Amino acid sequence: MSAKTMQTAVATLALCFIPLSIAAGEVPFAEQELDDPDTFVTITVENDLFAGRDGGYTNGIGVSWGRGPFQTMEETDSPEWLQSMAHAFGIHDDTQHFNAATYSIFQGIQTPSDITNSNFEPNDLPYAGILGWRGTIHSWTESRAEQFSLILGMVGPASLAEQSQKAVHKITGSDEPMGWDYQLHNEPVFALQARRSWRHEISNGDGHGVDFIGMLEASGGNFSSYIAGTYMVRWGLNLQRSHASISVLPGREINPLAGTNTEEYYVFFGVQPRYVFNDIFVDGNTFRDSPSVTIKNERLIYSTGFVWNWKNWGLLFSLAETTSTFEERKGNAKFGSVSISYRL
User: Fold this and answer.
1) Could you read off the pLDDT of 43-93 as tens digits, one per residue?
2) Residue 197 class from Cβ within 10 Å (0-12 exposed, 13-18 middle, 19+ buried)?
3) What keyword terms does UniProt attach to this protein (predicted)?
């Protein structure tokens, strides 16, 4: 990624979110009693085999944990430096908002379409993996939610992606991936991500309802830089309690309200147009020559699925489809995600 691309991405990130810090129209939980904060743990598995194919973004696994809701950000016991970064991107911290902090350790794996080919394929995605940490600050009201995330990780052999994929394929009897000698080099990566969403209730009766969620999102860093808008429709029970961590790729988030004492569920459909400035899984290493292909900046992501929370448990299943991430190949990529949450 060139210095000019990095500057453009960071400037876009700032322009998208700093003005939003002065936006009005807060709808506080003024009449709602704050529940006792709880600790949640989520295990997530993503795989393109859930969608019936192998190749591209092929697998991801993560463990997330979080605690909330709290009346103030300080009560989340999140690091002060992470709170300061969230404040810099306009994330609110006042008594009109609920707050939570969540963390994740995750691994993601990408391969070309033909993993049995032991030769270098210049016109397909490179072998790549990431082992990363993500910290997120959540702030939300009944009609609005804000998030700031910091991703830190390592791309390359240090991600242990090769060992993970070979072990899983051996256990499942799948084809052995043969091209990991051509994976990206070791490189530390980071991304600053900010998101703001607005919830509009369309109908509500006996707890069941329909709502519409609009979202603005941006990311900047050598891992990935993009801007995006998301549009989502949901139908279900107690929707006003479950919108704080909505995402077009919900398997990659932890819901700070998962595992509540009341039953909550919904089905959803979302679409996200996205403009990508840089993506290390497509562009290759930032400072060294490595396998790469030509990035396709304009992308479109669709997703659908359902979420169910009951007593101490939460379950999420989603299917996502995205247009091609690079110019050398046409055609969409698909993958599915399963998350199980438990309230400790």
Assistant:
1) 988 877 665 555 455 678 999 998 888 888 889 889 999 999 999 988 877
2) buried
3) Signal
Domains of the chain: 3-343 (2.40.128.140)
Give the separation between CA 333 and CA 320, rounded to whole angstroms: 8
Query: What sign for the dihedral angle of Cα 274, 229, 11, 190?
Result: negative
28 CB burial (10 A radius; 0-12, 13-18, 19+): middle
Q: How far apart are CA 223 and CA 151, in angstroms?
A: 9
Query: In the chain, which ranges are continuous DSSP H helix?
Result: 3-17, 80-88, 161-172, 280-283
Q: How far apart are CA 140 and CA 69, in angstroms?
A: 10
Q: What is the pLDDT of residues 116-131, one digit of tens each?
A: 999 999 999 999 999 9
User: Could you tell me the CA-to-CA distances from 85 to 44, 52, 82, 239 in Å, in that order?
Assistant: 26, 40, 5, 29
Distance CA 163, CA 159 (A): 9
As given in the structure block, the two tokens for residue 271 are: 């679409």
Q: How many CB atoms lie within 10 A of CB 300?
A: 12
Q: Count Cα neighbours of 139 within 13 Å in the Cβ-side half-sphere.
A: 27
